[in-house]
């Protein structure tokens, strides 16, 4: 791959200014309170990352990855960008690639939702779908073949973001919580796909000396919760989850287990039931990884209530459920896979109540 030269420095400077201008045009994402009628004294908040221009939490990551690559001298005006993704990161990177006038390839499993594939194309990206195999290896191989730059979110997510502040998601959460009844959360709950978000949150919590604890929600089939419990576990044959964006078959370099206070393994049925329940209460659909987060919050809140504790819990609304209309929100699709939501829905109703 050809690296940028001194002649490209003005272009790189202009590229950084374009990204900074995009940041300046964007407002912060909302913090939404989700009522818990059966847990008095405990407040649950959702940080709504679906309101970013590309519709997901991954907008922050893509922006950071591009700035990191530009400032490291990896991207120039003729560089083709390649990424491995389950969809949302690719959507956001396609957006920034087009902003800079760069070609972008998204290497993804063929099982990625059709809605995500279409959105990548809408933003000017070129989906590259594969059957089986390791998506990251395939992306790295493609980058080598075409002389492009492999962005590699799974390696660089934890280091591309300024975890000390600079309007990262952790700083934003604590600033928005400042006027709430319990301004310092007892728990923050997030999922792990790359590990970058949990790394940023865990480092910021420690840097600011908050007593907040960090819980990471992980699909049942993922390796991350196994690795957290036993560091010798480095991989599983396959993740096997239908929840896109979280969970991995191998421990990625950006996953930093020592920053995490607790991990909760979440069955797919629980993630989907929680996503649907949350959507019904908000009046708009949210994605499956949001359901994974909310199910872990259910565990945390139930335990707080059992101990007689009060306080706040914050989690992330990662993306819109519109991207999963043909999968997680399709009853026929669930039935074909033998996914029954009944048990999870009953448990959710015990905490969140039922809609009238």
Strand content: 5-15%
Q: Helical amount among residues, as a percent range?
A: 40-55%
- The CATH architecture of the largest domain can be given as 3-Layer(aba) Sandwich
Please outline the major beta sheet: 6 strands, mixed
Q: Which CATH class of the largest domain?
A: Alpha Beta
Q: How far is it from the N-terminal to the C-terminal residue, by CA?
A: 59 Å
- Helix/strand-derived category reads alpha/beta
Order of helices and strands: HEEHEHEHEHEHHEHEHEHHEHH
Write the CATH fold name of the largest domain.
Answer: Rossmann fold
- Taken together, the total number of domains comes to 2
Low-pLDDT residue spans: none
Q: Which descriptor suits the 3D outline? A: globular
Question: What is the β-strand count?
Answer: 10
Structure report:
This protein has 356 residues and is α/β, with parallel strands linked by helices. It has 2 domains: 22-55 and 163-352, Rossmann fold (3-Layer(aba) Sandwich), CATH 3.40.50; 58-157, Rossmann fold. Helix content is 42%, strand content 15%. It has 13 helices and 10 strands. It has helices spanning 9-25, 58-71, 88-99, 114-122, 135-146, 153-160, 169-176, 196-207, 224-229, 268-282, 288-306, 331-336, 342-352, and strands at residues 31-34, 42-48, 81-84, 104-109, 126-130, 149-150, 187-191, 213-219, 262-266, 311-317. The strands form 2 sheets. Strands 1-2-10-7-8-9 form a 6-stranded mixed β-sheet, with helices on both faces. Strands 5-4-3-6 form a 4-stranded parallel β-sheet, sandwiched between helices. Strand 4, helix 4 and strand 5 form a beta-alpha-beta unit. Helix 3 (88-99) runs parallel beside helix 4 and helix 10 (268-282) crosses helix 11. The longest helix has 19 residues, at 288-306. The radius of gyration is 20 Å and the shape is globular. The N and C termini lie far apart (59 Å).
């Amino acid at each position: 791959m050809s690296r940028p030269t001194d002649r490209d420095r003005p272009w790189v400077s202009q590229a950084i200014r374009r990204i900074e201008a995009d940041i300046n045009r964007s407002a912060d994402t909302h913090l939404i309170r989700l009522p818990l009628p059966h847990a008095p004294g405990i407040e649950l908040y959702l940080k709504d990352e679906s309101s970013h221009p590309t519709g997901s939490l991954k907008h922050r990551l893509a922006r950071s990855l591009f700035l990191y690559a530009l400032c490291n001298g990896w991207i120039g005006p003729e560089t083709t960008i390649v990424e491995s993704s389950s969809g949302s990161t690719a959507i956001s990177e396609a957006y920034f690639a087009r902003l800079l006038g760069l070609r972008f390839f998204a290497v993804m499993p063929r099982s990625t939702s059709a809605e995500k594939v279409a959105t990548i194309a809408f933003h000017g990206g070129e989906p590259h779908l594969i059957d089986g195999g390791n998506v990251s290896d395939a992306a790295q191989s493609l980058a080598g073949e075409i002389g492009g730059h492999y962005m590699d979110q799974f390696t660089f997510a934890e280091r591309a973001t300024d975890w000390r502040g600079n309007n990262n998601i952790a700083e934003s959460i604590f600033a928005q919580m400042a006027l709430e009844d319990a301004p310092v959360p007892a728990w923050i709950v997030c999922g792990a796909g790359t590990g970058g978000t949990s790394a940023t949150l865990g480092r910021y919590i420690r840097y600011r000396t908050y007593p907040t604890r960090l819980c990471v929600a992980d699909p049942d089939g993922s390796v991350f919760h196994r690795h957290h419990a036993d560091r010798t576990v480095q991989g599983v044959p396959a993740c096997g989850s239908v929840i896109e964006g979280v969970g991995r078959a191998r421990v990625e370099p950006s996953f930093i287990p020592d920053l995490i206070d607790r991990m909760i393994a979440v069955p797919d049925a629980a993630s989907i039931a929680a996503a649907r329940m949350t959507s019904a209460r908000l009046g708009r659909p949210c994605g499956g990884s949001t359901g994974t987060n909310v199910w872990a919050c259910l565990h945390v809140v139930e335990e707080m209530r059992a101990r007689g504790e009060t306080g706040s819990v914050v989690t992330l609304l990662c993306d819109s459920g519109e991207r999963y209309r043909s999968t997680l929100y399709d009853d026929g699709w669930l039935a074909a896979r033998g996914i029954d939501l009944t048990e999870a829905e009953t448990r959710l109703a015990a905490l969140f109540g039922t809609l009238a």
